[in-house]
Amino acid sequence: MNFDPRYSGRNFTSVGTRPIRPDGVDKVTGRARYGADFNMAGQLVGRVLRSPHAHATIRKIDTSKAEKLNGVKAVITAADLPDLTDGDAAMYDILDNCMARKKALYDGHAVAAVAAVDARTARQALKLIEVDYEVLPHVTDVDEAMKHTAPLLNDAIFTEGLEEKPVRPSNVTKRTQFGHGDVHEGFGQADYVVERSFKTEQTHQGYIEPHACVASVSADGTADLWVCTQGHFVYRQHCAQLLGMEASKLRVTSSEIGGGFGGKTHVWAEPVALALSRKAGRPVKLVMTRDEVFRASGPTSATSIDVRIGARKDGTITAAEATLRYSCGPYAGMWAEIGAMTAFACYRLENVRTVGYEVLVSRPKTAAYRAPSAPMAAFAVESAVDELAKEIGMDPVEFRIKNAAQEGTRSSYGPVYGPIGIGPTLEAAKNHPHMKAPLGKNQGRGMACGFWFNFGGQTCTDLNIGMDGSVSLAVGTVDVGGSRASLSLVAAEELGIAYEQVKAVVADTSSLGYNDMTDGSRGTFSSSMATISAARNAIKILRERAAQMWDIPLDDVVWEKGHAIAKGEKYGNLAALSLREIAAASGKTGGPIAGHSELVADGAGVSFATHVCDIEVDPETGATRVLRYTVVQDAGKAVHPTYVEGQYQGGAAQGIGWALNEEYIYGKDGRLQNPGFLDYRIPVCSDLPMIDTQILEIPNPNHPYGVRGVGETSIVPPLAAIANAVSNAAGVRMTHIPMSPPRILAAIEAERGG
Amino acid sequence: MRYIRPLSMEDAVGQLAGSPGTAAILAGGSDLLVRMKGGFIEPDLIVDIKAIDGLVEIRETAEGFSIGAAVSCALMGESAALMREWPGVVEAAKLIGSKQVQGRCTIVGNLCNASPAADSVPALVAAGARALIVGPAGRRTVVVEAVPTGPGKTSLAKGEIIEAILLDRRAPRSGDAYLRFIPRTEMDIAVVSAGVNLTLDEQGVVKSARVALGAVAPTVLLVEEAAEALIGRKLDEAALERLAKVCSGACRPIDDKRGTIEFRRKVAGVLARRAATTAYARAGGK
Amino acid sequence: MAGVAVLTTINGDNVEYLCQPDETLLDVLRDRLGLTGAKEGCGTGDCGACSIILDDRLVCSCLVLGAEAEGRRVETIEGMAHGDRLHPLQQKFLEHAALQCGVCTPGFLIAAKDLLAKNPDPTEEEIRFGLAGNLCRCTGYDKIVRAVQDAASVMKGA
Amino acid sequence: MVEVTLWGSLGAIAGGKSKVEIEAKDIRELFRKLAEQYPGFEPYIDRGIAVAIDGTIYRDTWSKELPQGAEIFLLPRLAGG
């Protein structure tokens, strides 16, 4: 790869404009096809039988009655998905999560599945499957699960990362630690110290489209999978590995995706659908119900976090430490680890230490959710920061500005920062009119900062120029929120042509090389880098063709504003050749013109945001109302500013829901009490105000246009920003998320002493 | 499973009474279809009553209003006369679910679903509404609070259908109001709710009152002591305090996914007080 | 289980189908008639993604039986544009980027069309409460509300 | 010779050291030599280690050169949403 990804500081023509997205008309006319909108001739209906128990040994499964039911074409259990993971622990966990093997590990864990001619028959067949369970004690609370007396969920787990190898198994899979300096010494220098414990409940990504796929395995061992996913190449790898197929024989097409937010980054029911299709010899469509989505996919960690921060009278933080306990569901994860890395990332700290504990509980397998693990850590840290500012008597914004990380600061997770945007977002927030707006009775203002890493990763694109000069851009990163528009803009920019001349599509796994999934805010960052590279490769060919058409040396041809130009006075009479003209002649000058690129997009710039909000609290009921909300975030370079704003607003809205009302509620029996949108309360339109946004552009030095990821950071500050606002409005520090009305009212009453 | 759409009450009652298995009445369907989807009920017979003459009508009579069993809550909201006379009842009906759900759901369905948290029921109980029931044994009228007997259970016999809800014409200087507490602004089930219906004398003194609370006991509570706290008084601070205290005390709530015992007790009083204030103003009290 | 024969009108066209008594209108539209614009986000009337208009009433098609459509008028997202001319709401949703993943969009458009039919000049609050039955997880609703406001002003002018 | 800083948990495996010196010209050689010197690192390398070079995080780029005097920091490989 001969590609220079460094930021070049150019002026833009297309990038930064706001055209209509290429997939827009299909989406407003109902024509766009999502996971459940695809059908194949002769397809069967797949359905999954799920454990009603939070923890149980599966003694025996008798499927004979179901198999005899007229219209049933296949019934499978774990026996039909043998373990082919060859010691790959992470894949084994995914396999076990797709279909329970020896034990059911949570309410909703898949134990068997059927494929039948219609939904009614499939439903009846599930009722005929007899599962003999031995119910075991369970534990759903993260703090309870850490106790020695807690029921053990996996007796092969011995805590990793302890100085002495433990002799007893535990629900704690791993301890991790980050930081630098000497916190003991740092606290010794502090005039003020704030120490508090916080809890956050488990939430779900809450995408509106349930998981859905159509799987078709042929007798020759090849297969097709149509599926809503954030990463069809990753799904292909996972499914192929779990089913013992060669990856290239499984073609995965990503449908339009109705939201993912991390919840569609690894397989759930897709291997089950493929196994059903293989056994039945017919295509199988498998669509989760909403109840299944909540019980058996997605959720983020529930957490319990202790924070301690010390500062001098002048407002300098001298030491900071946090202990973070994150639930992982029944399988090992690295969620507390990420929380421990991000917790203090916004600040310049000489002495900092974070410790994370990964905790197994009888809940569904934790999945990534938009800047996974960072919002909870930020909630705890930013609440304590606010409280410390108050104790010192400093304005919370000034206190943060004084301690904000900057270029050259050693981050709390290790490396030294390059150019970053935390300081500028704080300054912008400080100067925003929102900060000066008056507040009424029972109203409070809160603010908080947030950090996310952003990823790059493996990326591949094809850019094909048609003979009419139109450009087809095939990318491998799933478009979750407008990236086809941004990538078309980037191709148009680089080629120097109109946006309308480019059409971006998401290619299937057989048409393009491997791509990592759309996660870690990498979609536009990585694929734009690959698109620029592909366009540059195409431009080289365009120049060669122009040179041929003119019969002059290649070195004398330059590319400017969509045209080949013969450089030098001797060519003064040669009119510039447009891309269209070169394309029209391509059949005679060497055939099709295309640019390809494959690269690992490294150097994703880290991203920071500052949020401000006003909340009104009804002191008699604990009800809250979000009056005003402002997001300030660094985008590096906003390729399509409207969709950047959309990411800011969407992330803020999810954070607001998490802060106020969303939570998994488990009964004493270990069953999820609220597996539906009725009682899992995501914000509705009337819950929210307009969400103001301010885009800052501090270029990422490692991207030609300065782009940073923008998708995730916006969910990090809201929990803390709202908690700070509610605490200011109600006059009592809120330490438990979500701040549902009963929790707020109880806190107010406790403060009143009644 | 069979689906039928009878054209008369007699036919509907006959089909229901004669059905050997489980039968379900379909009006708005917003509870029935959810229960079918969840696999909680698999009826052998579905009787769609919307084609029966008069069942999708709101009739104004000399005595008051007759709201047909298949009248959607959205349609109730469009009746200016009903809104003028019974704003609290209409408010309650229009709080059920979303606009989409209101286009289908009915107050009779809300009553017969027998949820303690049903939005329209406390307002109907406070309003002194009656249910006109048709069954194999003929017609009978009962007060609405006699219909639900516990969560998901009603006093209706096999083959009986509620044909209409009856509301009286209002005495002068009357007003009603309904308030519920939900965590979001829309789309939630009531965590606790209160309906208040008042009639004042010419001096603004409460002559008669009915106060009902929802989601604080297995069925909606008609709190007579709360009414007594208001009768014979103007709505002064002391009366409101007493009302709130009595209502909080009358609750027999549970802890569940929607709220705690303490929260429901406290907020029942707050809502009763606020609803009474609105009802009082609507009745012309100052 | 006996099938029910239904004769109805969908987006102005006469349509006949046979459905099971427990089959929802949403299932009929999607699985029998190939009209997959309405989405099933929950199947219990909580998300609004399957919104349609039934005899001038906004409803969730997941809460209507297919059999109930007999003799009635059904309007779906597929009937919203006139030929290649988008409805002003569709156009404004595109211009304002009032969609990200787009799976809730058909439901929002139908609900917004019903809202503006009943209230051509809604306030922001009326729009927000009018669309509260439609869940969107991507946008935070800001751009959706702005698109509806803009469409309302265009439609008033028309 | 480059100086490599380890995150807390990896440091424990290296006998409590937070920094190690390695003679390596690129990421590939760094991982190979780390695994030779500290066999306990192997499962971590298999699971994925990211390398931050002067603050820029590289995940899968074996060929990336390690400039003399650069700050080299090892990090766990992360998941995103």
From TrEMBL, chain A:
<protein>
    <submittedName>
        <fullName>Aldehyde oxidase and xanthine dehydrogenase molybdopterin binding</fullName>
    </submittedName>
</protein>
<dbReference type="InterPro" id="IPR008274">
    <property type="entry name" value="AldOxase/xan_DH_MoCoBD1"/>
</dbReference>
<dbReference type="GO" id="GO:0005506">
    <property type="term" value="F:iron ion binding"/>
</dbReference>
<dbReference type="GO" id="GO:0016491">
    <property type="term" value="F:oxidoreductase activity"/>
</dbReference>
<dbReference type="InterPro" id="IPR016208">
    <property type="entry name" value="Ald_Oxase/xanthine_DH-like"/>
</dbReference>
<dbReference type="Pfam" id="PF02738">
    <property type="entry name" value="MoCoBD_1"/>
</dbReference>
<dbReference type="InterPro" id="IPR000674">
    <property type="entry name" value="Ald_Oxase/Xan_DH_a/b"/>
</dbReference>
<dbReference type="Pfam" id="PF01315">
    <property type="entry name" value="Ald_Xan_dh_C"/>
</dbReference>
<dbReference type="InterPro" id="IPR036856">
    <property type="entry name" value="Ald_Oxase/Xan_DH_a/b_sf"/>
</dbReference>
<keyword id="KW-0560">Oxidoreductase</keyword>
<feature type="domain" description="Aldehyde oxidase/xanthine dehydrogenase a/b hammerhead">
    <location>
        <begin position="29"/>
        <end position="137"/>
    </location>
</feature>
<dbReference type="InterPro" id="IPR046867">
    <property type="entry name" value="AldOxase/xan_DH_MoCoBD2"/>
</dbReference>
Automatic annotation (TrEMBL), chain B:
<dbReference type="InterPro" id="IPR051312">
    <property type="entry name" value="Diverse_Substr_Oxidored"/>
</dbReference>
<dbReference type="Pfam" id="PF00941">
    <property type="entry name" value="FAD_binding_5"/>
</dbReference>
<keyword id="KW-0560">Oxidoreductase</keyword>
<dbReference type="InterPro" id="IPR002346">
    <property type="entry name" value="Mopterin_DH_FAD-bd"/>
</dbReference>
<protein>
    <submittedName>
        <fullName>Carbon-monoxide dehydrogenase medium chain</fullName>
    </submittedName>
</protein>
<keyword id="KW-0274">FAD</keyword>
<dbReference type="InterPro" id="IPR005107">
    <property type="entry name" value="CO_DH_flav_C"/>
</dbReference>
<keyword id="KW-0285">Flavoprotein</keyword>
<dbReference type="InterPro" id="IPR036318">
    <property type="entry name" value="FAD-bd_PCMH-like_sf"/>
</dbReference>
<dbReference type="InterPro" id="IPR016169">
    <property type="entry name" value="FAD-bd_PCMH_sub2"/>
</dbReference>
<dbReference type="GO" id="GO:0071949">
    <property type="term" value="F:FAD binding"/>
</dbReference>
<dbReference type="GO" id="GO:0016491">
    <property type="term" value="F:oxidoreductase activity"/>
</dbReference>
From TrEMBL, chain C:
<dbReference type="InterPro" id="IPR002888">
    <property type="entry name" value="2Fe-2S-bd"/>
</dbReference>
<keyword id="KW-0560">Oxidoreductase</keyword>
<dbReference type="GO" id="GO:0046872">
    <property type="term" value="F:metal ion binding"/>
</dbReference>
<feature type="domain" description="2Fe-2S ferredoxin-type">
    <location>
        <begin position="4"/>
        <end position="80"/>
    </location>
</feature>
<dbReference type="InterPro" id="IPR001041">
    <property type="entry name" value="2Fe-2S_ferredoxin-type"/>
</dbReference>
<dbReference type="GO" id="GO:0051537">
    <property type="term" value="F:2 iron, 2 sulfur cluster binding"/>
</dbReference>
<dbReference type="InterPro" id="IPR036010">
    <property type="entry name" value="2Fe-2S_ferredoxin-like_sf"/>
</dbReference>
<dbReference type="GO" id="GO:0016491">
    <property type="term" value="F:oxidoreductase activity"/>
</dbReference>
<protein>
    <submittedName>
        <fullName>Xanthine dehydrogenase, Fe-S binding subunit</fullName>
    </submittedName>
</protein>
<dbReference type="InterPro" id="IPR006058">
    <property type="entry name" value="2Fe2S_fd_BS"/>
</dbReference>
<keyword id="KW-0408">Iron</keyword>
<dbReference type="InterPro" id="IPR051452">
    <property type="entry name" value="Diverse_Oxidoreductases"/>
</dbReference>
UniProtKB/TrEMBL annotation, chain D:
<dbReference type="Pfam" id="PF02597">
    <property type="entry name" value="ThiS"/>
</dbReference>
<dbReference type="InterPro" id="IPR012675">
    <property type="entry name" value="Beta-grasp_dom_sf"/>
</dbReference>
<protein>
    <submittedName>
        <fullName>Sulfur carrier protein ThiS</fullName>
    </submittedName>
</protein>
<dbReference type="InterPro" id="IPR016155">
    <property type="entry name" value="Mopterin_synth/thiamin_S_b"/>
</dbReference>
<dbReference type="InterPro" id="IPR003749">
    <property type="entry name" value="ThiS/MoaD-like"/>
</dbReference>
